[in-house]
Design a protein that fits this description.
Number of strands: 7
Number of domains: 1
Number of helices: 6
Strand order of the largest sheet: 1-2-3-5-4
Order of helices and strands: EEEHHHEEHHEEH
Structural class: alpha+beta
CATH topology: Transferase(Phosphotransferase), domain 1
Largest sheet: 5 strands, antiparallel
Radius of gyration: 18 Å
């Protein structure tokens, strides 16, 4: 039987997917393809593309391929990416389940964006963010959308977690077959995010030793 989800109970509404608390487990979240994304696909892509199998589910395929790489590629420190748990049938279509990242009080973890805007971002956060950037440079994982809203702080375990934006924009992708090309692409995204972080932190009056530029080794 399909799990029943209510649109008015979505806890996040992204460009491609809706996110819900799992009705049967407090430790899990469910992501489903949004109607908005389906409609955009119908208008944006050609008839030949729309007639392909699994047209609307390419975000799943790209994301799951990265989770397979993390599990089977002998990658260390996979805790930097939200844990994939499997698929689930819902009244809103096929969903994927992921482990919820939470705070000590049981609430969902704060995004990097929220930490900065609430002026909670500190030197410990800056150092741990550098750890994430260094890990991204060492691995072969494909990150297409590295933004402050796609990264959360796991205060229980003391590290940041990427919760969205992994996987290439297209299938197949050169990034998934060329480690060098993917590393350069990840570096560009890290550099862009670092500049955004510096601007945001400055605007909110933070005075920290960031040294993000020392993370990348060209």
């Amino acid at each position: 039987m399909d799990l029943q989800l209510r649109l008015d109970q979505a806890i996040a509404n992204g460009n491609e997917r809706l996110v819900f608390s799992h009705p049967e487990s407090d430790d899990l979240l469910i992501k489903v393809i949004s109607d908005r994304f389906r409609k955009r696909m119908d208008h944006k892509y050609s008839i030949s593309t729309r007639l392909r199998r699994l047209t609307y589910y390419w975000p799943y395929m790209k994301e799951v391929s990265e989770h397979i790489y993390l599990r089977e590629g002998q990658v260390e420190n996979t805790h930097f990416v939200q844990e994939f748990k499997g698929f689930v049938d819902t009244n809103l279509g096929l969903g994927i389940t992921v482990k919820a990242v939470k705070k000590h009080n049981g609430e969902l973890a704060d995004t990097l964006s929220a930490l900065i805007s609430s002026k909670q971002f500190n030197q410990e956060h800056a150092d741990r963010l550098n750890d994430l950037f260094k890990w991204l440079e060492r691995t072969f994982i494909v990150v297409r959308d590295l933004r402050t809203v796609n990264i959360v702080w796991d205060e229980i375990n003391g590290h940041f977690v990427i919760i969205d934006g992994i996987g290439s924009r297209r299938l197949p992708s050169l990034r998934s077959v060329s480690r060098l090309y993917n590393r350069r692409a990840n570096r560009r995204r890290i550099t862009k995010l670092c500049q955004r972080l510096k601007n945001d932190l400055e605007s909110f009056g933070h005075n920290l030793n960031l040294n993000f530029s020392q993370t990348l080794h060209y």
